[in-house]
Amino acid sequence: MSPKPPRLSGRDLVKTFEKMGYRKVSQKGSHIKMKNDDTGNVSIIPDHKEIDRWTLKSILRDADISEEELQKHL
Known about the structure:
The chain has a three-stranded antiparallel beta sheet. It has a domain of about 45 residues. The mean pLDDT is about 90. The chain has three helices and three strands. By secondary structure, it is α+β, with helices and mostly antiparallel strands.
């Protein structure tokens, strides 16, 4: 069984994605669109105080980022 993903706020996740080469493209309401120019991946991150663990797993899966890779950049 894999360990639970960390509890993060939307802003913390945006900062982590920026460290990983993503940039903020746009924002509509409480959702931030991030894009990685190298891979072309686009991810939508909710700007919530705490992102649900299943939502985080879905964001990471869509961005093709492992939980271990995320932990390295926190």
